[in-house]
Amino acid sequence: MDMRFPEGFLWGGAVAANQCEGAYDEDGKGLSIQDVLPHGLKGPVTDAPTPDNMKLVGIDFYHRYKEDIKLFSQMGFKVFRTSIAWSRIFPNGDEEIPNEKGLQFYDDLFDECLKYGMEPLITISHYETPLQLARNYNGWADRSMIGFYEKYVRTLFSRYGGKVKYWLTFNEINSVLHSPFMSGGICIPKDELSEQELYQAVHHELVASALAAKLAHEMMPQAKVGCMILSMPVYPLTPAPDDVIATLKIEHQNDFFGDVHVRGRYPGYMLRYFKEKGITIQMKPEDEEILQNTVDFISFSYYMSVCGSADPNQKAGLGNIIGGVPNPYLHASEWGWQIDPKGLRYVLNRFYDRYQKPLFIVENGLGAVDELVDDGNGSFTVWDDYRIQYLRDHLIQVREAIEDGIPVMGYTAWGCIDLVSASSAELKKRYGFIYVDRKDDGSGTLNRYNKKSFGWYRDVIQTNGKSLTSTTDA
């Protein structure tokens, strides 16, 4: 089969502001929740930024973005996904007037992308709620957040509407069910947070996301706005009917978010769940109408699949973000994330069967410990054949899904340059095509070095996927 992808396929890479920019207190930026999460999901929230928080410096993208965008252009990126740090624009989140220096930084960043013919794909809120909104309002648990987000969105669309065609409202919006502070700025400890409070916060986010879609279509008719889902397909551990129904219920917890974004209303299975759990969502009269402002496309992350089981003795895998029983037929990465390339084809088919909307893979990649070595030509590199194999296997499955008739808009490899992990706040968990010389103890030059995968991905893009069938690597 010819492995070439459709004409106009958007090849690129993805990062998040809080994981790469650094400059956490420069040019008027306020603190975000990430500035008090020195150990990611592993450790407690601190009262103030601490020196062991790798995200305070990140990879210094804030000062080095021109160098990095140039490297992306050398790989041939058609699109670059990043996020805007909300607290660069509104330092506390509830100001009347935005921070001009923050706005100017993103103007300059987007101009640099466009200079190389690279479309910015922008996540409006990516795990970095302004800290004061979390502390003063309990994040998305408070309905006031809708108004603060709407003002923020209006500011972005007014400023960047002529530069940005593709927008995502919230990163992995369904992750709030599992990481309420990181995903939703909710300060109530997870083990004390009631489902009533949690799903009320979800409702506020869904209304805010729909408002963003409404504003995008009004203010930027040429733009496209999408939701962003953490996709983790669930297979029944066995063919036992109880395992199949257990799997269905797990899938519904995540389908809920896509269903509201695409269909504009709450699905029946969630209404039943709320009824059985005694959950009453407080809505304003206008909420149902607002929710009808649906998205233009579905974007999602994909790293792994899991299994569902009705057996309470089956334990969730340690590396799995949102639970799930490990699949006995799959191997795992160094961080316990099970590797399942065919699951990407499966989820693409499943999403399109469900929604009939264009799909965009905006995160996929392999976190691994990389070793920087002398390349024999007076420079340094990483021989990351394991990453090449991972990405090749997944991209072949994307092409299979396209052959299945699925309209896939593009693919942005996660962490296209090494950055700080969201889940563990480590830099040793590297994803990039570009090695950044910085260690978890804060040492390093921050110099950039191309890995072997850099040349491999450049060839994939140049041949529009045809080189995926090659037996040799760049």
UniProtKB/TrEMBL annotation:
Cited Gene3D superfamilies: Glycosidases
Q: Which GO terms describe its biological process?
A: carbohydrate catabolic process
Locate the coiled-coil region(s) and give their ranges: none
Q: Which domain of life is it from?
A: Bacteria
Gene Ontology molecular-function annotations: beta-glucosidase activity
Q: Which Pfam families match?
A: Glyco_hydro_1
Cite the active-site annotation.
E363 (nucleophile)
Q: Say if the entry is tagged with keyword Repressor.
A: no
For this record, an example GO cellular component is: cytosol
UniProt keywords (A-Z) are:
Glycosidase, Hydrolase
| Sequence similarity | Belongs to the glycosyl hydrolase 1 family.
For this entry, the protein name equals: 6-phospho-beta-glucosidase
Q: Which organism is it from?
A: Anaerocolumna xylanovorans DSM 12503
